[in-house]
């Protein structure tokens, strides 16, 4: 606990964090004991100021030590998980790398959990199996918990993003025959594949097209294509291209069907993609399971983020039990040394990164796009939704436990295709676009 | 006998010609275009190295995959990697459960509808509206209400298997010859006795025909249902190999699905013959 992070100026991520509450309680208790109850404490604090009292107290009695000790117990409940045998759903794409590898590489087992990771047929199925409780938690597209919580495309059920899985790592792939039409302004009439309506893929592709002056609802056809079927549809010329997850961009190149037009990090460097999503009821009803699971996933995410581990991970997850893809395809997607489909080998070690911190400003951006494209209507309680769904505090605590440095604030300015998104003014951002439905 | 031999010979000829043409057509052409940078080529599939798209598998590739898949059909390597035999077992279990439940409802209900013109008039509009609905259209509704994907798949089988049995049973029961019923009445047989001793044997061949149609449809539908729901089953296997663009594995699965479907049909065909009667 070194840097001030909370809006109150304290050295914790948020005043609601359990350790912050506990720390305050410890200090108040010590002061009461020293100054003769609550009335005496208030008199002294009013006369001298809280800071002076705290400093003076610390000289006599190291309250901060007691606070730290309490914080540790609060932040790492020693309690055993309420439920140990868990089922996690995933879609067979490299975004799910930390969730998948957690099973074969022992990250769940290390935290006292027995986890079975189950490959699932599509995003709608992941959503339905999660909602009906067949999966305890799952790999989802980061906009999905927002959509589920807001009741867009399903009944509103409180759902949470406990951690982001990956940032970047997606690409626009076009059919080989379009290799001379690299300017999106020439794409009028194209049929383009996206994996799901509530996906970063859809929002980024819409954004990219709109910046080029094309209305994504009128000038092109956006087709919902499950990621595994994207390459086959590209080959059959049902679509001209897609903005999709890896390894399918690389698979299109591997099969001689398409080329990689651009990586999504060229649109928004650091955009969130997939999330580790848990039902809100797990956070409240099974906190120990939730904590153990979150710790496992963040550990795995940190491990996956190191370039030197990528090759080994590719070998582990490429097999039939997980991604079911040729190893070289997964390896190219993860290491960033890849064939672009146009005859050259690209080296971009940052093609995909695994960074778990769920910035609430990311949630805000996603909601601005939901609003922009008419997926949600009416006024949105922007920050309420973002803070209920993106659990930045817990992820920050776990990151610190593991020696990572979580960012100081859950809000930051993002830059998308050179345009800044200020989380303080989401409504203004929505109306700043010429092409929009809202 | 001579006819059979000639048919068999013709079948072999057709197969050999079709497979031979396939083998030749799917063999990749010689590489075109300039030679690639070897580092780049190493990152591509074999066909892409020659500037081509990965072609359809040849019959020889398929035979190789079939040998590989059928050699050890019952292995389990984790939740997502199980042998083709286990997947078939799951599909059969779902089909038989759904079909069994459908029979339990459809045959008694069909009996009642066949015996009572009033009930027939009342239920016929419902049946006529629901019967032509594609069973997969029920899937979202089932997932939403039953909240269990395995049970939903069984429900979809149930709903598609019920109609042929229901209609055939009621038709068979309704068309039992008047004279036979009159004979039963003159012998003072009660309604229960008439149903079991006269109507059931008379309608049995029609009922069995309904069952045979039902199981055929159920086997058709399970593949599609499992492709949607996922998890286990031969349909999921097909979907999963499609995921990996492993077309040879899909062809193997298609052959296996066809063989199992044929076996199911033969089985009910035998049962139908066993209850057939001649005047």
Helix-strand layout with pairing:
The complex is a heterodimer of chains A (438) and B (279).
Chain A: H1 18-35, H2 37-48, H3 50-60, H4 63-75, E1 85-90, H5 97-101, H6 107-110, E2 114-119, H7 123-131, E3 137-141, H8 143-150, E4 159-164, E5 167-168, E6 170-175, E7 191-194, H9 200-211, E8 221-224, H10 227-235, E9 241-245, H11 248-254, E10 258-263, E11 274-279, H12 280-285, H13 287-305, H14 310-317, H15 327-335, E12 337-339, E13 345-347, E14 352-353, H16 360-372, H17 382-389, H18 392-401, E15 414-416, E16 419-421, H19 426-431
Parallel strand pairs in A: 1-2, 1-3, 7-8, 7-9
Antiparallel strand pairs in A: 3-11, 4-11, 5-14, 6-9, 6-10, 12-13, 15-16
Helix pairs in contact in A: 1-2, 1-4, 2-3, 10-11, 11-15, 13-18, 14-15, 16-17
Chain B: H1 2-26, H2 38-42, H3 46-49, H4 59-71, H5 84-115, H6 117-130, H7 139-146, H8 149-174, H9 178-186, H10 191-229, H11 234-243, H12 247-274
Helix pairs in contact in B: 4-12, 5-6, 5-8, 5-10, 5-11, 7-8, 8-10, 10-11, 10-12, 11-12
Please sum up the structure shown.
The complex is a heterodimer of chains A (438) and B (279). With 438 residues, chain A is α/β, with parallel strands linked by helices. Chain A has helices spanning 18-35, 37-48, 50-60, 63-75, 97-101, 107-110, 123-131, 143-150, 200-211, 227-235, 248-254, 280-285, 287-305, 310-317, 327-335, 360-372, 382-389, 392-401, 426-431, and strands spanning 85-90, 114-119, 137-141, 159-164, 167-168, 170-175, 191-194, 221-224, 241-245, 258-263, 274-279, 337-339, 345-347, 352-353, 414-416, 419-421.
What does this structure look like?
The complex is a heterodimer of chains A (438) and B (279). Chain A is α/β, with parallel strands linked by helices. Chain A has helices spanning 18-35, 37-48, 50-60, 63-75, 97-101, 107-110, 123-131, 143-150, 200-211, 227-235, 248-254, 280-285, 287-305, 310-317, 327-335, 360-372, 382-389, 392-401, 426-431; strands at residues 85-90, 114-119, 137-141, 159-164, 167-168, 170-175, 191-194, 221-224, 241-245, 258-263, 274-279, 337-339, 345-347, 352-353, 414-416, 419-421. In chain A, helix 9 (200-211) links the parallel strand 7 (191-194) and strand 8. Helix content of chain A is 43%, strand content 16%. Chain A has three domains: 18-75, no CATH class; 85-168 and 272-326 and 353-431, D-Maltodextrin-Binding Protein, domain 2 (3-Layer(aba) Sandwich); 170-264, 3-Layer(aba) Sandwich (D-Maltodextrin-Binding Protein, domain 2). With 279 residues, chain B is mainly α. Chain B has a domain at 84-274: MetI-like (MetI-like fold, Orthogonal Bundle). Chain B contains twelve helices and no strands. The chains are: A alpha/beta (438), B mainly alpha (279).
């Amino acid at each position: 606990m070194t840097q001030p992070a909370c809006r109150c100026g304290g050295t914790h991520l948020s005043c609601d964090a359990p350790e912050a509450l506990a720390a305050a309680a410890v200090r108040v208790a010590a002061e009461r004991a020293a100054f003769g109850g609550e009335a005496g404490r208030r008199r002294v604090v009013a006369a001298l100021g809280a800071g002076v009292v705290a400093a003076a107290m610390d000289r006599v009695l190291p309250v901060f030590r007691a606070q730290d000790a309490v914080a540790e117990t609060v932040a790492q409940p020693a309690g055993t998980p309420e439920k140990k045998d868990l089922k996690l759903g995933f879609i067979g794409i490299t975004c799910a790398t930390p969730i998948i590898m957690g099973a074969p590489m022992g990250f769940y087992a290390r935290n006292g959990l027995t986890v079975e990771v189950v490959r699932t047929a599509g995003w709608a199925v992941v959503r339905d199996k999660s909602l009906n409780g067949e999966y305890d938690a799952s790999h989802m597209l980061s906009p999905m918990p927002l959509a589920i919580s807001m009741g867009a495309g399903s009944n509103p059920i409180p759902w949470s993003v406990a951690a982001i899985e990956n940032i970047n790592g997606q690409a626009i792939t076009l059919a080989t025959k379009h290799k001379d039409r690299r300017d999106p302004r020439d794409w009028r009439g194209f049929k383009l594949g996206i994996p799901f309506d509530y996906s970063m893929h859809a929002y980024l592709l819409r954004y990219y097209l709109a910046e080029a002056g094309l209305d994504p609802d009128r000038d092109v056809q956006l087709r919902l294509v499950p990621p595994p079927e994207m390459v086959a549809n590209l080959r059959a010329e049902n679509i001209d291209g897609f903005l999709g997850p890896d390894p399918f961009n690389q698979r299109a190149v591997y099969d001689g069907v398409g080329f990689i037009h651009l990586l999504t990090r060229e649109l928004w460097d650091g955009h969130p993609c997939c999330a580790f999503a848990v039902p809100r009821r797990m956070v409240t009803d099974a906190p120990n399971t939730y904590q153990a699971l979150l710790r496992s996933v963040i550990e795995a995410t940190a491990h996956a983020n190191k370039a030197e581990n990528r090759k080994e991970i590719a070998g582990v997850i490429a097999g039939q039990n997980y991604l079911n893809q040729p190893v070289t395809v997964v390896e190219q997607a993860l290491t960033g040394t890849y064939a672009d489909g146009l005859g050259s080998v690209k080296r971009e070690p940052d093609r995909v990164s695994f960074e778990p911190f769920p910035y609430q400003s990311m949630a805000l951006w996603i909601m601005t796009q939901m609003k922009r494209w008419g997926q949600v209507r009416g006024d949105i309680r922007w920050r309420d939704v973002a803070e209920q769904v993106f659990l930045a505090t817990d992820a920050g605590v776990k990151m610190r436990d593991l020696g990572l440095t979580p960012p100081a604030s859950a809000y930051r300015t993002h830059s998308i295709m050179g345009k800044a998104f200020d989380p303080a003014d989401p409504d203004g951002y929505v109306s700043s676009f010429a092409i929009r439905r809202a | 006998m001579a006819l059979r031999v000639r048919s068999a010979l013709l079948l072999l000829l057709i197969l050999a010609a079709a497979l031979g043409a396939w083998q030749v057509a799917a063999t990749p052409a010689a590489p075109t275009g300039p030679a690639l940078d070897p580092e780049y080529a190493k990152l591509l599939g074999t066909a892409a190295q020659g500037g081509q798209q990965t072609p359809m598998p040849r019959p020889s590739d398929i035979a190789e995959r079939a040998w590989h898949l059928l050699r050890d059909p019952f292995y389990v390597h984790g939740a997502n990697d199980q042998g083709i035999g286990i997947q078939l077992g799951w599909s059969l279990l779902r089909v038989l459960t759904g079909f069994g439940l459908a029979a339990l409802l459809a045959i008694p209900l069909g009996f009642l509808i066949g015996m009572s013109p009033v009930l027939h008039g009342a239920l016929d509009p419902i049946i006529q509206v629901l019967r032509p609905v594609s069973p997969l259209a029920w899937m979202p509704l089932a997932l939403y209400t039953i909240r269990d994907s395995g049970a939903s798949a069984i429900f979809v089988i149930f709903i598609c298997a019920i109609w042929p049995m229901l209609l055939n049973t009621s038709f068979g029961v309704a068309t039992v010859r008047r004279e036979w019923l009159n004979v039963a009445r003159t012998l003072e047989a009660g309604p229960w006795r008439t149903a079991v001793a006269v109507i059931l044997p008379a309608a049995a061949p029609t009922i069995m025909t309904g069952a045979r149609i039902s199981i055929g449809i159920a086997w058709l539908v399970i593949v599609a249902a499992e492709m949607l729901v996922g998890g286990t089953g031969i349909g999921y296997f097909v979907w999963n190999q499609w995921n990996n663009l492993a077309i040879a594995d899909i062809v193997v699965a298609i052959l296996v699905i066809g063989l199992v479907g044929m076996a199911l049909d033969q089985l009910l065909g035998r049962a139908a013959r066993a209850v057939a009667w001649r005047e």
